[in-house]
Amino acid sequence: MNVVVVGAGLAGPLLAQGLSRAGIDVALYEREAANQSSQGYRLHIAPEGDLGLRACLPSTLYDRLLATSGKRGSGWRLLDPHLQVVREMLVTPVDEEETGRHLTVDRLTLRQILLTGIDVHQGASFQRYELLDDGRVRVFFANGVVVDVDLLVAADGTHSRVRTQLLPHAEVVETGQSEIFGKTPLTDTVRELAPAAALDGFCTVVGTDGRFMPLAAQEFLSGGEDYLMWVLGAPTRLFPVDLSTLDKAGLWKVAAELVADWHPSLAALVGLAAPETVHTTTVRTAKTVPHWETVPVTLMGDAIHTMVPQGTSAAVALRDAALLCRRITERTGSLLDAVRAYETEMLEYGFAEVERSLRSIS
User: Fold this and answer.
1) 82 vs 153, 253, 343, CA distance in Å?
2) Beta-bridge partners for 177
3) Are 106 and 68 in contact (CB under 8 A)?
4) What's the average model confidence in pLDDT over 302-321?
5) Is 207 helix (H, G, I), strand (E, B) or coil?
6) Is 245 exposed, middle or buried (CB count within 10 Å of its CB: 0-12, 13-18, 19+)?
7) Position with higher pLDDT, 94 vs 314
8) Do domains 2-72+100-172+286-359 and 173-284 have the same CATH topology?
9) Is 203:311 a contact under the CB 8 Å cutoff?
10) Quick one: three-class SS letters along 254-279?
11) What are the sequence ranges of the domains in the chain?
């Protein structure tokens, strides 16, 4: 049996790790070139994501993940623009061996760990697939590579080309919000400026006009350079220009200006950011799709259930990878039966989380 996974973000490599451990031939294809740096900073991994990581990773890699994760904070807090705590939710101690850990990780560090020992075909952009008469699938890449496999798995994100072909009716829509995000080195000066809540977990500053600013420190247990991640989000209409037309320096300037009427520490924190780390995105969400007729092509993570970022999307994608791996490796029937069982379960919890995330911004 052989499997092709398209997309080497987080879920794709985790699935590849799990299938490889089970002795299944799996190849990972990524559209980015080897020298192209992916975006992403601090990530919260909810317990279901931790359980997925444990299930698929060799113990040596899981231990490395724990060793390079971030220091644990006490919880989540909502602040007003004057940095006063409005609401807080503290993490209750639980049996983490049974229920999974809350982890904070650096996305690029996690990705490097997930890719350890995995052969990645870089610069290979998925083009299309064909279903073959023998029940297999032929996969075409833009660089001319063509492979025949038993299963094609799409982990290629919100703009998934595989989803476009498999489910042309599936919709990913804009929520009307945009974000500018970046990171600021966690120097002594930044520690003094940052809200205490940002150094002790995760916090979000919320205004009365739709503006919001998540802040969280990434302090590595070992290795890595500590930083403060920040995001400035707002209804797109509140931004003075089309953010897609700005370079990094322009985005950096707009972000500082948009919080100039809030506590002065916030604009100062943005001003101390490394300009090359500043990016922009719009906030999107997937519309629920009914289960389709199962074929030897399936989807994981943002490729099927893109959701509003609110701390669980990474964990859900990792849960997808672990579930699909388990359904494949423990199957007693056909491969399609295993894929169908995965899709049925994934669609239920995945779109339930999409709906929950939408309520967080309503």
Assistant:
1) 47, 21, 46
2) 235
3) yes
4) 95
5) coil
6) exposed
7) 314
8) no
9) no
10) HHHHHCCCCCHHHHHHHHCCCHHHCE
11) 2-72+100-172+286-359, 173-284
Does the domain at 173-284 match CATH 3.30.9.30? Answer given as yes
Burial profile 275-300: b = 16 or more Cβ within 10 angstroms, e = fewer:
eebbebbebbbbeebeeeebbbbbbb
Phi, psi of 67 (to 5 degrees): -65, -30
Tell me the two tokens of residue 72.
């644990």
Confidence (pTM)? 0.95
The residues near 133 (Cβ < 8 Å, ≥ 6 apart) are none
Contacts of 118 (CB under 8 A, 6+ apart): 13, 16, 17, 20, 28
Interval 158-189: pLDDT, tens? 999 999 999 999 999 999 999 999 999 999 99
φ and ψ at residue 285, rounded to 5 degrees = -145, 150
2-72+100-172+286-359 fold: FAD/NAD(P)-binding domain (3.50.50)
Task: Evaluate if residue 231 carries a pLDDT over 90.
Answer: yes
Q: Name 295's bridge partners.
A: 297
Which pLDDT score is estimated for 360? Answer: 78
In this structure, what token pair is assigned to residue 28? 């990972």
Q: What is the mean pLDDT of residues 62-67?
A: 97
Is 35 a residue whose pLDDT tops 80? Answer: no
Residue 82 banded pLDDT, cuts 50, 70, 90: very high
- Sheet containing 120-121: give its strands across: 120-121, 25-29, 2-6, 151-154, 297-299
Q: What is the CA radius of gyration of the chain?
A: 21
Burial string for 319-347 (b: 16+ CB within 10 Å, else e) reads bbbbbbbbbbeeeeeebbebbbbbbeebb
pLDDT value, residue 125: 96
Mean pLDDT confidence for 285-306: 98
As a whole number, mean pLDDT of residues 292-318 equals 95
Q: What is the pLDDT of residue 36?
A: 64
